[in-house]
Amino acid sequence: MSGLSEAVTILKATFEKYADKEGEKNTLTKRELAELLRNEFPVGGPTSKAAENNFFSMLDDDNNSVVNFMEFVNFVAYFATMSYQE
Ligand SMILES: [Ca+2]
Ligand SMILES: [Ca+2]
Predict the structure, then answer these.
(1) pTM score > 0.70 for this model?
(2) Helical H segments across 1-86, by residue range
(3) How many Å lie between the centroid of ligand 1 and the Cα of residue 28?
(4) How would you write the pLDDT of the chain (86 residues) with one tens digit per residue?
(5) Hey, which of 32, 46, 71, 81 would disulfide with 52, CB 3.0 to 4.6 Å?
């Protein structure tokens, strides 16, 4: 497996690990997202309830109160862009 397809596999596995905790298996609730961010983005992630809410509304593009894989990947791409500064 190449590095990039491995990265995609990790992205999917990470999403599924948290999305499977409550409600629908293929979407993240606010609580699931908060847990994902706390564990997977210890640096740059939310540090308060207010920040968690901000992150959630930032990720939930279509405002349907859950974050799907596409919305999650958009965020990861944004995060990658932010950290790619020369
Ligand atoms: Ca879920
Ligand atoms: Ca959504």
Answers:
(1) yes
(2) 3-19, 30-40, 49-59, 69-83
(3) 4
(4) 689 999 999 999 999 999 999 999 999 999 999 999 999 988 878 899 999 999 999 999 999 999 999 999 999 998 889 889 87
(5) 46
Where does 3-83 sit in CATH, by number? 1.10.238.10
Counted residue by residue, the chain has a size of 86
Is residue 67 within 8 A of residue 60, CB to CB? The reply is: yes
pLDDT in tens, 54-66: 999 999 999 999 9
Q: How far is the CA of 58 from the centre of ligand 1 (A)?
A: 18
49 three-class SS: helix
The domain limits of the chain are 3-83
Whether the CB-CB separation of 44 and 54 falls below 8 Å is answered with no
Tell me how far the alpha carbon of residue 5 lies from the centroid of ligand 2, in angstroms: 25
Give the separation between CA 48 and CA 59, rounded to whole angstroms: 16
